[in-house]
Protein backbone atom coordinates (compact mmCIF):
# COMPACT_ATOMS: atom_id res chain seq x y z
CA UNK A 1 0.00 0.00 0.00
CA UNK A 2 1.17 3.50 -0.84
CA UNK A 3 0.53 5.90 2.00
CA UNK A 4 -0.52 8.62 -0.44
CA UNK A 5 -3.46 6.40 -1.43
CA UNK A 6 -4.26 4.90 1.95
CA UNK A 7 -6.70 6.35 4.47
CA UNK A 8 -4.70 7.04 7.62
CA UNK A 9 -6.22 9.99 9.50
CA UNK A 10 -3.52 10.41 12.20
CA UNK A 11 -4.14 13.02 14.89
CA UNK A 12 -1.45 15.45 15.96
CA UNK A 13 -3.05 16.27 19.28
CA UNK A 14 -3.50 13.76 22.06
CA UNK A 15 -7.26 13.31 22.45
CA UNK A 16 -8.32 14.56 25.87
CA UNK A 17 -11.04 11.97 26.40
CA UNK A 18 -8.70 8.98 26.26
CA UNK A 19 -7.47 7.86 29.68
CA UNK A 20 -5.24 4.95 28.80
CA UNK A 21 -2.39 4.63 26.37
CA UNK A 22 -3.98 2.10 23.99
CA UNK A 23 -7.06 4.28 23.55
CA UNK A 24 -4.91 7.38 22.95
CA UNK A 25 -2.69 5.59 20.46
CA UNK A 26 -5.58 3.98 18.58
CA UNK A 27 -7.19 7.39 18.12
CA UNK A 28 -3.91 9.12 17.24
CA UNK A 29 -2.91 6.40 14.77
CA UNK A 30 -6.24 6.69 12.97
CA UNK A 31 -7.34 3.16 13.85
CA UNK A 32 -10.81 3.86 15.26
CA UNK A 33 -13.42 6.59 15.46
CA UNK A 34 -16.04 6.73 18.16
CA UNK A 35 -19.63 6.87 17.00
CA UNK A 36 -21.41 6.72 20.38
CA UNK A 37 -20.26 5.73 23.86
CA UNK A 38 -18.54 2.35 23.47
CA UNK A 39 -19.33 2.06 19.75
CA UNK A 40 -16.57 2.50 17.19
CA UNK A 41 -15.88 2.45 13.50
CA UNK A 42 -12.77 0.51 12.62
CA UNK A 43 -10.77 2.66 10.22
CA UNK A 44 -8.52 0.86 7.72
CA UNK A 45 -5.42 0.54 9.92
CA UNK A 46 -7.42 -0.70 12.91
CA UNK A 47 -9.45 -3.01 10.71
CA UNK A 48 -6.30 -4.66 9.37
CA UNK A 49 -5.15 -5.50 12.89
CA UNK A 50 -8.61 -6.72 13.87
CA UNK A 51 -8.58 -9.03 10.84
CA UNK A 52 -5.13 -10.38 11.69
CA UNK A 53 -6.26 -11.24 15.20
CA UNK A 54 -9.46 -12.78 13.87
CA UNK A 55 -7.47 -14.93 11.43
CA UNK A 56 -5.14 -16.22 14.13
CA UNK A 57 -8.18 -17.20 16.20
CA UNK A 58 -9.71 -19.02 13.21
CA UNK A 59 -6.48 -20.86 12.42
CA UNK A 60 -5.99 -22.05 15.96
CA UNK A 61 -9.62 -23.13 16.25
CA UNK A 62 -9.28 -25.12 13.04
CA UNK A 63 -6.13 -26.73 14.37
CA UNK A 64 -8.05 -27.96 17.42
CA UNK A 65 -10.83 -29.39 15.22
CA UNK A 66 -13.45 -26.79 16.12
CA UNK A 67 -15.95 -25.87 13.43
CA UNK A 68 -16.64 -22.30 12.29
CA UNK A 69 -20.11 -20.93 11.58
CA UNK A 70 -21.90 -17.61 11.88
CA UNK A 71 -24.95 -16.72 13.94
CA UNK A 72 -26.82 -13.41 13.71
CA UNK A 73 -26.35 -10.42 16.01
CA UNK A 74 -30.08 -9.86 16.55
CA UNK A 75 -31.89 -12.67 18.33
CA UNK A 76 -35.47 -13.46 19.24
CA UNK A 77 -36.26 -13.08 22.95
CA UNK A 78 -38.14 -16.40 22.97
CA UNK A 79 -35.06 -18.55 23.37
CA UNK A 80 -33.84 -16.35 26.20
CA UNK A 81 -37.15 -16.77 27.98
CA UNK A 82 -36.68 -20.52 27.73
CA UNK A 83 -33.31 -20.39 29.43
CA UNK A 84 -34.52 -17.84 31.97
CA UNK A 85 -31.87 -15.30 31.01
CA UNK A 86 -34.17 -12.78 29.33
CA UNK A 87 -34.91 -11.31 32.76
CA UNK A 88 -31.84 -12.58 34.61
CA UNK A 89 -29.27 -10.87 32.34
CA UNK A 90 -30.23 -7.41 33.58
CA UNK A 91 -29.59 -4.02 32.04
CA UNK A 92 -26.59 -5.08 29.99
CA UNK A 93 -28.98 -6.84 27.62
CA UNK A 94 -30.10 -4.50 24.84
CA UNK A 95 -33.76 -5.33 24.36
CA UNK A 96 -35.32 -4.30 21.05
CA UNK A 97 -38.91 -4.37 19.81
CA UNK A 98 -39.56 -4.90 16.11
CA UNK A 99 -42.45 -3.37 14.08
CA UNK A 100 -44.70 -6.33 14.89
CA UNK A 101 -44.14 -5.76 18.60
CA UNK A 102 -41.99 -8.84 18.94
CA UNK A 103 -39.27 -8.82 21.58
CA UNK A 104 -35.82 -9.08 20.11
CA UNK A 105 -32.38 -8.46 21.53
CA UNK A 106 -28.87 -7.71 20.33
CA UNK A 107 -26.92 -10.79 21.42
CA UNK A 108 -24.42 -10.37 24.25
CA UNK A 109 -23.51 -14.07 23.79
CA UNK A 110 -25.04 -17.09 22.02
CA UNK A 111 -25.58 -20.05 24.38
CA UNK A 112 -29.34 -20.11 23.73
CA UNK A 113 -29.08 -19.86 19.97
CA UNK A 114 -26.44 -22.55 19.63
CA UNK A 115 -28.37 -24.85 21.95
CA UNK A 116 -31.43 -24.37 19.76
CA UNK A 117 -29.42 -25.20 16.64
CA UNK A 118 -28.03 -28.25 18.36
CA UNK A 119 -31.37 -29.61 19.56
CA UNK A 120 -32.88 -29.09 16.09
CA UNK A 121 -30.22 -31.04 14.22
CA UNK A 122 -28.31 -33.40 16.48
CA UNK A 123 -30.05 -36.51 17.74
CA UNK A 124 -27.50 -39.17 18.53
CA UNK A 125 -24.47 -39.58 20.75
CA UNK A 126 -22.69 -40.73 17.57
CA UNK A 127 -22.62 -37.10 16.41
CA UNK A 128 -20.56 -36.12 19.46
CA UNK A 129 -18.13 -34.65 20.33
CA UNK A 130 -18.95 -31.40 18.58
CA UNK A 131 -17.51 -27.91 19.05
CA UNK A 132 -19.00 -25.05 17.05
CA UNK A 133 -17.86 -21.45 17.22
CA UNK A 134 -18.28 -18.11 15.52
CA UNK A 135 -16.67 -14.68 15.58
CA UNK A 136 -19.39 -12.08 15.66
CA UNK A 137 -20.25 -8.65 17.04
CA UNK A 138 -21.79 -8.61 20.48
CA UNK A 139 -23.60 -5.88 22.37
CA UNK A 140 -23.54 -5.41 26.12
CA UNK A 141 -24.96 -2.17 27.42
CA UNK A 142 -22.07 -1.67 29.82
CA UNK A 143 -22.70 0.79 32.63
CA UNK A 144 -19.34 2.49 32.03
CA UNK A 145 -17.98 1.89 28.55
CA UNK A 146 -14.41 3.18 28.65
CA UNK A 147 -10.85 2.69 27.56
CA UNK A 148 -11.81 2.63 23.89
CA UNK A 149 -12.24 -0.85 22.46
CA UNK A 150 -11.21 -2.46 25.73
CA UNK A 151 -14.63 -1.99 27.29
CA UNK A 152 -16.95 -1.19 24.46
CA UNK A 153 -20.66 -1.74 24.23
CA UNK A 154 -20.41 -3.23 20.77
CA UNK A 155 -17.41 -5.54 20.57
CA UNK A 156 -16.10 -8.40 18.45
CA UNK A 157 -15.85 -11.74 20.16
CA UNK A 158 -15.08 -15.31 19.34
CA UNK A 159 -17.49 -17.57 21.18
CA UNK A 160 -17.42 -21.32 20.97
CA UNK A 161 -19.61 -24.05 22.39
CA UNK A 162 -18.80 -27.71 22.98
CA UNK A 163 -21.35 -30.53 23.16
CA UNK A 164 -20.28 -33.78 24.77
CA UNK A 165 -21.88 -36.96 25.99
CA UNK A 166 -20.23 -37.09 29.39
CA UNK A 167 -18.61 -34.81 31.92
CA UNK A 168 -15.22 -36.42 31.16
CA UNK A 169 -15.53 -35.60 27.46
CA UNK A 170 -16.63 -32.05 28.25
CA UNK A 171 -13.66 -31.57 30.56
CA UNK A 172 -11.40 -32.73 27.75
CA UNK A 173 -13.00 -30.06 25.56
CA UNK A 174 -12.31 -27.55 28.35
CA UNK A 175 -8.65 -28.54 28.53
CA UNK A 176 -8.35 -28.52 24.74
CA UNK A 177 -9.64 -24.95 24.68
CA UNK A 178 -7.16 -23.90 27.31
CA UNK A 179 -4.33 -25.25 25.16
CA UNK A 180 -5.75 -23.62 22.03
CA UNK A 181 -6.07 -20.27 23.75
CA UNK A 182 -2.51 -20.32 25.07
CA UNK A 183 -1.21 -20.86 21.56
CA UNK A 184 -3.56 -18.24 20.13
CA UNK A 185 -2.34 -15.50 22.49
CA UNK A 186 1.30 -16.41 22.03
CA UNK A 187 0.98 -16.04 18.26
CA UNK A 188 -0.19 -12.47 18.94
CA UNK A 189 2.96 -11.78 20.95
CA UNK A 190 1.12 -11.92 24.27
CA UNK A 191 1.53 -13.90 27.40
CA UNK A 192 -1.91 -14.56 28.83
CA UNK A 193 -2.05 -16.25 32.22
CA UNK A 194 -4.97 -18.62 32.91
CA UNK A 195 -6.55 -17.82 36.30
CA UNK A 196 -9.37 -19.58 38.09
CA UNK A 197 -12.39 -17.29 38.05
CA UNK A 198 -16.02 -16.78 38.99
CA UNK A 199 -18.59 -17.81 36.43
CA UNK A 200 -20.95 -14.76 36.51
CA UNK A 201 -24.19 -14.85 34.50
CA UNK A 202 -23.01 -17.68 32.19
CA UNK A 203 -23.17 -20.03 35.21
CA UNK A 204 -21.17 -23.18 35.81
CA UNK A 205 -18.57 -25.00 37.83
CA UNK A 206 -15.25 -24.72 36.10
CA UNK A 207 -13.95 -21.54 34.59
CA UNK A 208 -10.64 -19.87 33.84
CA UNK A 209 -9.99 -16.35 32.66
CA UNK A 210 -6.94 -15.45 30.60
CA UNK A 211 -5.25 -12.27 31.74
CA UNK A 212 -2.56 -10.17 30.14
CA UNK A 213 -0.50 -8.23 32.66
CA UNK A 214 -0.66 -4.46 32.13
CA UNK A 215 -0.68 -1.48 34.50
CA UNK A 216 -4.00 -0.28 33.15
CA UNK A 217 -5.77 -3.62 33.56
CA UNK A 218 -9.16 -3.52 35.26
CA UNK A 219 -8.56 -6.61 37.41
CA UNK A 220 -6.21 -6.88 40.33
CA UNK A 221 -4.28 -10.13 40.07
CA UNK A 222 -2.17 -12.18 42.48
CA UNK A 223 0.27 -14.72 41.12
CA UNK A 224 3.39 -16.77 41.55
CA UNK A 225 6.10 -15.11 39.42
CA UNK A 226 7.03 -18.59 38.17
CA UNK A 227 3.94 -18.54 35.93
CA UNK A 228 5.39 -15.79 33.79
CA UNK A 229 8.28 -18.10 32.84
CA UNK A 230 5.88 -20.56 31.20
CA UNK A 231 5.62 -20.40 27.43
CA UNK A 232 3.78 -22.63 25.06
CA UNK A 233 6.38 -22.35 22.30
CA UNK A 234 6.34 -24.58 19.25
CA UNK A 235 5.35 -27.77 21.02
CA UNK A 236 3.28 -30.23 19.06
CA UNK A 237 0.05 -31.18 20.76
CA UNK A 238 -2.36 -33.86 19.69
CA UNK A 239 -5.60 -32.08 20.53
CA UNK A 240 -7.46 -35.38 20.65
CA UNK A 241 -5.18 -36.69 23.36
CA UNK A 242 -6.88 -36.40 26.74
CA UNK A 243 -3.58 -36.86 28.56
CA UNK A 244 -1.66 -34.24 26.58
CA UNK A 245 -4.31 -31.55 26.97
CA UNK A 246 -4.72 -32.33 30.68
CA UNK A 247 -0.93 -32.17 31.06
CA UNK A 248 -0.77 -28.67 29.58
CA UNK A 249 -3.68 -27.52 31.76
CA UNK A 250 -1.91 -28.89 34.83
CA UNK A 251 1.35 -27.20 33.86
CA UNK A 252 -0.21 -23.79 33.30
CA UNK A 253 -2.69 -23.78 36.18
CA UNK A 254 -0.87 -25.57 38.98
CA UNK A 255 0.92 -22.43 40.13
CA UNK A 256 -1.09 -19.83 42.02
CA UNK A 257 -2.68 -17.18 39.76
CA UNK A 258 -5.98 -15.56 40.69
CA UNK A 259 -7.96 -12.40 40.12
CA UNK A 260 -9.24 -10.47 43.13
CA UNK A 261 -12.61 -12.21 42.76
CA UNK A 262 -11.19 -15.61 43.67
CA UNK A 263 -8.00 -14.60 45.49
CA UNK A 264 -7.36 -16.18 48.89
CA UNK A 265 -4.50 -14.52 50.74
CA UNK A 266 -3.98 -17.42 53.15
CA UNK A 267 -3.61 -19.95 50.33
CA UNK A 268 -1.37 -17.52 48.43
CA UNK A 269 0.98 -17.25 51.39
CA UNK A 270 0.93 -21.00 52.01
CA UNK A 271 1.65 -21.95 48.41
CA UNK A 272 4.00 -19.28 47.15
CA UNK A 273 7.32 -18.28 48.72
CA UNK A 274 7.36 -14.59 49.54
CA UNK A 275 9.98 -13.61 46.95
CA UNK A 276 7.79 -15.03 44.19
CA UNK A 277 4.50 -13.41 45.27
CA UNK A 278 3.34 -10.72 42.86
CA UNK A 279 0.40 -8.33 42.78
CA UNK A 280 -0.35 -6.60 39.49
CA UNK A 281 -3.12 -5.48 37.16
CA UNK A 282 -4.45 -7.62 34.34
CA UNK A 283 -6.65 -7.35 31.24
CA UNK A 284 -9.09 -10.21 30.66
CA UNK A 285 -8.71 -11.36 27.05
CA UNK A 286 -10.67 -14.59 27.24
CA UNK A 287 -12.58 -17.02 29.41
CA UNK A 288 -13.53 -20.68 29.22
CA UNK A 289 -16.41 -22.38 31.04
CA UNK A 290 -17.67 -25.85 31.72
CA UNK A 291 -21.30 -25.60 32.80
CA UNK A 292 -22.54 -29.16 32.61
CA UNK A 293 -26.16 -29.59 31.56
CA UNK A 294 -27.42 -26.14 32.61
CA UNK A 295 -28.58 -25.07 29.14
CA UNK A 296 -29.35 -28.52 27.80
CA UNK A 297 -31.66 -29.19 30.79
CA UNK A 298 -33.39 -25.82 30.45
CA UNK A 299 -33.82 -26.13 26.69
CA UNK A 300 -34.24 -29.86 26.21
CA UNK A 301 -30.99 -30.47 24.31
CA UNK A 302 -30.66 -34.23 24.54
CA UNK A 303 -29.19 -36.93 22.36
CA UNK A 304 -30.02 -40.57 22.22
CA UNK A 305 -27.34 -42.24 24.37
CA UNK A 306 -25.67 -45.61 23.70
CA UNK A 307 -28.42 -47.19 25.85
CA UNK A 308 -31.11 -45.71 23.59
CA UNK A 309 -32.29 -43.27 26.28
CA UNK A 310 -32.40 -39.47 25.89
CA UNK A 311 -29.35 -37.99 27.61
CA UNK A 312 -28.78 -34.26 28.23
CA UNK A 313 -25.52 -33.10 26.68
CA UNK A 314 -22.68 -31.59 28.67
CA UNK A 315 -21.69 -28.19 27.44
CA UNK A 316 -19.11 -25.49 27.83
CA UNK A 317 -18.55 -22.11 26.27
CA UNK A 318 -15.39 -20.24 25.47
CA UNK A 319 -14.79 -16.63 24.56
CA UNK A 320 -11.96 -14.52 23.20
CA UNK A 321 -12.26 -10.73 23.18
CA UNK A 322 -11.05 -10.18 19.61
CA UNK A 323 -11.58 -6.39 19.55
CA UNK A 324 -10.36 -5.96 23.14
CA UNK A 325 -7.14 -7.75 22.14
CA UNK A 326 -6.21 -4.89 19.81
CA UNK A 327 -6.10 -2.58 22.84
CA UNK A 328 -4.51 -5.20 25.10
CA UNK A 329 -1.65 -5.78 22.66
CA UNK A 330 -0.96 -2.03 22.55
CA UNK A 331 -1.05 -1.81 26.35
CA UNK A 332 1.57 -4.56 26.45
CA UNK A 333 3.68 -3.23 23.57
CA UNK A 334 4.30 0.49 23.06
CA UNK A 335 6.74 3.26 23.95
CA UNK A 336 6.53 7.05 24.18
CA UNK A 337 6.62 7.35 20.37
CA UNK A 338 3.75 5.01 19.66
CA UNK A 339 2.68 1.45 19.10
CA UNK A 340 5.10 -1.46 18.60
CA UNK A 341 3.22 -4.26 16.84
CA UNK A 342 4.30 -7.84 17.38
CA UNK A 343 5.03 -9.41 13.97
CA UNK A 344 2.03 -11.76 14.25
CA UNK A 345 -0.56 -8.98 14.15
CA UNK A 346 1.13 -6.00 12.50
CA UNK A 347 -1.10 -4.18 9.97
CA UNK A 348 1.76 -3.95 7.46
CA UNK A 349 4.89 -6.06 7.52
CA UNK A 350 7.23 -3.11 7.16
CA UNK A 351 7.39 0.54 6.24
CA UNK A 352 9.39 2.05 3.40
CA UNK A 353 10.41 5.65 4.00
CA UNK A 354 11.62 7.65 1.04
CA UNK A 355 13.77 10.48 2.41
CA UNK A 356 13.73 12.41 -0.87
CA UNK A 357 10.52 11.97 -2.76
CA UNK A 358 10.98 13.11 -6.35
CA UNK A 359 14.64 12.13 -6.50
CA UNK A 360 14.77 9.73 -9.45
CA UNK A 361 17.16 7.29 -7.82
CA UNK A 362 15.44 7.25 -4.43
CA UNK A 363 12.01 6.84 -6.04
CA UNK A 364 13.25 3.97 -8.22
CA UNK A 365 14.88 2.20 -5.26
CA UNK A 366 11.66 2.48 -3.24
CA UNK A 367 9.56 1.17 -6.12
CA UNK A 368 11.91 -1.76 -6.50
CA UNK A 369 11.80 -2.58 -2.76
CA UNK A 370 8.03 -2.31 -2.83
CA UNK A 371 7.77 -4.65 -5.82
CA UNK A 372 10.28 -7.11 -4.31
CA UNK A 373 8.48 -7.34 -0.97
CA UNK A 374 5.05 -7.59 -2.59
CA UNK A 375 6.24 -10.36 -4.93
CA UNK A 376 7.15 -12.40 -1.83
CA UNK A 377 3.62 -12.07 -0.50
CA UNK A 378 4.52 -9.34 1.99
CA UNK A 379 2.46 -6.24 2.61
CA UNK A 380 4.67 -3.12 2.91
CA UNK A 381 3.48 0.43 3.55
CA UNK A 382 5.42 2.84 1.35
CA UNK A 383 5.43 6.43 2.60
CA UNK A 384 5.58 8.10 -0.80
CA UNK A 385 4.25 11.46 0.40
CA UNK A 386 6.14 14.64 -0.32
CA UNK A 387 6.84 15.36 3.35
CA UNK A 388 9.88 16.00 5.46
CA UNK A 389 11.74 12.99 6.84
CA UNK A 390 10.95 13.86 10.47
CA UNK A 391 7.21 13.72 9.84
CA UNK A 392 7.52 10.41 8.01
CA UNK A 393 9.51 8.86 10.86
CA UNK A 394 7.03 10.13 13.43
CA UNK A 395 4.12 8.56 11.54
CA UNK A 396 5.92 5.23 11.18
CA UNK A 397 6.83 5.21 14.88
CA UNK A 398 3.26 6.09 15.86
CA UNK A 399 1.62 3.36 13.79
CA UNK A 400 4.21 0.89 15.05
CA UNK A 401 5.28 -1.25 12.08
CA UNK A 402 7.98 -3.55 13.47
CA UNK A 403 10.44 -2.91 10.60
CA UNK A 404 11.31 0.15 8.56
CA UNK A 405 13.46 0.49 5.46
CA UNK A 406 14.78 3.99 4.98
CA UNK A 407 15.91 5.01 1.52
CA UNK A 408 17.88 8.15 0.72
CA UNK A 409 20.25 9.42 -1.96
CA UNK A 410 23.26 9.35 0.36
CA UNK A 411 22.90 5.65 1.23
CA UNK A 412 22.09 4.70 -2.33
CA UNK A 413 25.42 6.17 -3.46
CA UNK A 414 27.03 3.44 -1.34
CA UNK A 415 24.50 0.85 -2.50
CA UNK A 416 22.70 0.59 0.85
CA UNK A 417 19.41 1.29 2.60
CA UNK A 418 18.78 1.34 6.33
CA UNK A 419 16.83 -1.43 8.07
CA UNK A 420 15.52 -0.42 11.50
CA UNK A 421 13.78 -2.39 14.21
CA UNK A 422 10.94 -0.46 15.82
CA UNK A 423 11.32 -2.43 19.05
CA UNK A 424 15.05 -1.94 19.67
CA UNK A 425 15.64 1.14 17.54
CA UNK A 426 18.72 -0.59 16.11
CA UNK A 427 19.59 0.04 12.46
CA UNK A 428 21.85 -1.63 9.99
CA UNK A 429 22.88 -0.59 6.49
CA UNK A 430 22.35 -3.31 3.92
CA UNK A 431 21.95 -3.55 0.14
CA UNK A 432 18.25 -3.28 -0.82
CA UNK A 433 17.96 -6.95 -1.87
CA UNK A 434 19.29 -8.02 1.50
CA UNK A 435 16.73 -5.86 3.31
CA UNK A 436 13.97 -7.64 1.37
CA UNK A 437 15.44 -11.03 2.20
CA UNK A 438 15.80 -10.22 5.89
CA UNK A 439 12.20 -9.08 6.17
CA UNK A 440 11.00 -12.17 4.32
CA UNK A 441 12.99 -14.38 6.73
CA UNK A 442 11.56 -12.63 9.78
CA UNK A 443 8.01 -13.25 8.62
CA UNK A 444 8.48 -16.76 7.34
CA UNK A 445 7.48 -18.18 10.71
CA UNK A 446 4.39 -16.00 10.78
CA UNK A 447 2.87 -17.17 7.53
CA UNK A 448 0.00 -19.27 8.71
CA UNK A 449 -0.20 -21.34 5.56
CA UNK A 450 3.39 -22.51 5.98
CA UNK A 451 3.38 -22.69 9.73
CA UNK A 452 0.09 -24.15 10.87
CA UNK A 453 -0.64 -27.75 9.96
CA UNK A 454 -4.41 -28.09 10.08
CA UNK A 455 -5.41 -31.16 12.02
CA UNK A 456 -7.52 -33.31 9.77
CA UNK A 457 -8.33 -35.84 12.43
CA UNK A 458 -11.87 -34.83 13.22
CA UNK A 459 -14.67 -35.52 10.79
CA UNK A 460 -16.83 -32.66 9.59
CA UNK A 461 -20.51 -32.95 10.43
CA UNK A 462 -23.04 -32.25 7.74
CA UNK A 463 -26.69 -32.02 8.54
CA UNK A 464 -29.32 -31.51 5.89
P1 LIG B 1 -15.61 -8.48 31.74
O1 LIG B 1 -15.46 -9.18 33.07
O2 LIG B 1 -14.37 -7.79 31.29
O3 LIG B 1 -16.83 -7.61 31.69
P2 LIG B 1 -16.88 -10.83 30.82
O4 LIG B 1 -16.27 -11.81 31.77
O5 LIG B 1 -18.23 -10.34 31.08
O6 LIG B 1 -15.88 -9.59 30.66
P3 LIG B 1 -17.06 -12.89 28.79
O7 LIG B 1 -18.49 -13.17 28.76
O8 LIG B 1 -16.13 -13.82 29.47
O9 LIG B 1 -16.80 -11.38 29.33
O10 LIG B 1 -16.60 -12.60 27.27
C1 LIG B 1 -15.43 -13.14 26.67
C2 LIG B 1 -14.41 -12.08 26.37
O11 LIG B 1 -14.97 -10.99 25.64
C3 LIG B 1 -13.82 -11.43 27.62
O12 LIG B 1 -12.78 -12.22 28.12
C4 LIG B 1 -13.32 -10.11 27.08
O13 LIG B 1 -12.03 -10.28 26.53
C5 LIG B 1 -14.29 -9.79 25.97
N1 LIG B 1 -15.23 -8.76 26.42
C6 LIG B 1 -16.24 -8.88 27.31
N2 LIG B 1 -16.90 -7.74 27.49
C7 LIG B 1 -16.31 -6.84 26.66
C8 LIG B 1 -16.55 -5.46 26.36
N3 LIG B 1 -17.53 -4.78 26.97
N4 LIG B 1 -15.76 -4.86 25.45
C9 LIG B 1 -14.78 -5.54 24.82
N5 LIG B 1 -14.51 -6.84 25.06
C10 LIG B 1 -15.26 -7.49 25.96
MG1 LIG C 1 -15.20 -13.19 31.35
TrEMBL record:
Domain named Aminoacyl-transfer RNA synthetases class-II family profile: which ranges?
Answer: 38-342
Record EC number: 6.1.1.15
UniProt keywords, alphabetically:
Aminoacyl-tRNA synthetase, ATP-binding, Cytoplasm, Ligase, Nucleotide-binding, Protein biosynthesis
The record's annotation in PROSITE patterns points to: AA_TRNA_LIGASE_II
Location comes to: Cytoplasm
Q: Which InterPro entries match?
A: aa-tRNA-synt_IIb (IPR002314), aa-tRNA-synth_II (IPR006195), Anticodon-bd (IPR004154), Pro-tRNA-synth_IIa_bac-type (IPR004500), Pro-tRNA_synthetase (IPR050062), Prolyl-tRNA_ligase_IIa_type2 (IPR023716), ProRS_anticodon_short (IPR044140), ProRS_core_prok (IPR033730)
Q: Would you say which domain of life the source belongs to? A: Bacteria
Catalyzed reactions per annotation: tRNA(Pro) + L-proline + ATP = L-prolyl-tRNA(Pro) + AMP + diphosphate
This protein's record includes keyword Signal:
no
**Single Gene Ontology MF annotation:** ATP binding
Task: Name the predominant localization.
Answer: cytoplasm
Ranges annotated as spanning the membrane: none
Q: Name one GO cellular component term.
A: cytosol
Principal EC category = ligase
According to its UniProt entry, one GO biological process term is: prolyl-tRNA aminoacylation
What job does the chain carry out?
Catalyzes the attachment of proline to tRNA(Pro) in a two-step reaction: proline is first activated by ATP to form Pro-AMP and then transferred to the acceptor end of tRNA(Pro).
The UniProt entry, under HAMAP family, shows:
Pro_tRNA_synth_type2
User: What NCBIfam families does the entry give?
Assistant: PRK12325.1 (NF008979), proS_fam_II (TIGR00409)
- Family indicated by similarity: Belongs to the class-II aminoacyl-tRNA synthetase family. ProS type 2 subfamily.
Please describe the quaternary structure of this protein: Homodimer.
Q: What is the name attached to this protein's record?
A: Proline--tRNA ligase
Q: Which organism is it from?
A: Roseobacter insulae
Gene name, per UniProt, is proS
